[in-house]
Amino acid sequence: MPTSPHLSPTARSTLTRKPGRAETDRAELGAVLDAGLICHLALVSGDSPLCVPTGYGRDGDTLYLHGSTGSGNVRTAARGVDICVTVTILDGIVYARSLNNHSMNYRCAVVHGRSRAVTDDVERDHALRVISEHLTPGSWDYARTPDSKELAGVAVLALDLTETSVKIRGGDPSEQPADADRDDVWAGVIDVRTVLGPPRPATYVPADLPVPPHIAERPSPR
Amino acid sequence: MPTSPHLSPTARSTLTRKPGRAETDRAELGAVLDAGLICHLALVSGDSPLCVPTGYGRDGDTLYLHGSTGSGNVRTAARGVDICVTVTILDGIVYARSLNNHSMNYRCAVVHGRSRAVTDDVERDHALRVISEHLTPGSWDYARTPDSKELAGVAVLALDLTETSVKIRGGDPSEQPADADRDDVWAGVIDVRTVLGPPRPATYVPADLPVPPHIAERPSPR
Fold it and tell me: What CATH architecture applies to the domain A19-174+195-216?
């Protein structure tokens, strides 16, 4: 388990493009993973790459994922294969004076590694709580926890946060010298935010049942 | 090029999990691709999967991507390899009475296929316009178009929208019969929206330069 505050670059995790956007601080990695809501999981299925969105959770230097044992891709990942998990937060649309300098502001964490099936009951329970608390904080102690039949249908995967890269872009557009005097052309940023709406009760919930505080007061992600 | 309004499932694009969430209408595929801002591109690099966010654009049954020729992954994709492009829009966080039924509302399109490097000048120019107009509509006719040196640094890829799957979840949480009488437990949905902020000019833009309408009046995605 890495104890250095700096990420350890390998060939896979060393950025070859725009290395100035790379972040080497583990705190930065944790911040991106904690700010995202979903990840994209990539694996090789047959000879082809596959990329699907899924939930996740982080506990220290371990990323947890889960999926249905009815999914072939989940069963593949549970065999312990190379996977890539990417969390991307789009922060802005960047308008430059030249199209080539148009860009996005974003925070992105890419994690490479070999998946590990979590089979120990105690770790599985812990991992499911971590995943649940990431997407729906407060739910684990409020809603009904999984029974043995439900648990049997869930595969839990762990991925060490050892081989990772974090890339962040923020601020103004970059410009070319040729465009510096084009004061008639607007440039700037439109910020993109993920905003949570008010809780909407399911049709079958009694009208007078209050929304519990962990849902009613949930802030939008930053 | 597919002319049927229905998607053609193959082994890779046939959903094995929750097939009730599959959409087989090509219009639905187009709607998801048009509503997303970024995609995740997965490919196999060495023996390992890699998944990175990037911009894209769609013209009919062709998806276009671009990237720097300085990127090893872009050069790999430009050789014509199997790739997977996934566009995910998170629409809501679904709180059920049981943790096992917690879920997300989302729209997701997954496209499998072999990438094709776009080398013809006319198609390249068209593809770059399509990609630009997707992320920054109106910019192509407003900002400076790429010069020959800038164009030389950009690789353009095409992917046929032939082998695709679309998966959509919306509405209330699912519940188990065992939880149906738990009228003391709240369940419902928190909607997730992607909201664009007001345009913020770059520091070097004259204070009295108006924001052009294609930027000032840009609506948030739906």
Answer: Roll (2.30)
At B77-110, the pLDDT tens digits run: 999 999 999 999 999 999 999 999 999 999 999 9
Say how far apart CA B81 and CA B113 lie, in whole Å.
Answer: 8
Question: pLDDT per residue over A127-156, tens digit each?
Answer: 999 999 999 999 999 999 999 999 999 999
CATH domain B19-216 topology? Pnp Oxidase; Chain A (2.30.110)
Cβ <8 Å between B201 and A215: no
Contacts of A126 in chain B (CB under 8 A): none
Name chain B contacts of A196, Cβ cutoff 8 Å: 93, 190-193
- Exposure b/e, A60-97, CB count within 10 A at least 16 = b: ebbbbbbbeeebebbebbbeeebbbbbbbbbbbbbbbb
CA distance A168 to chain B (A): 12
B197/A179 CB distance under 8 A: no
Q: Which chain A residue shows the shortest CA-CA distance from B44? A: A49
Q: How high is the ipTM of this complex?
A: 0.92
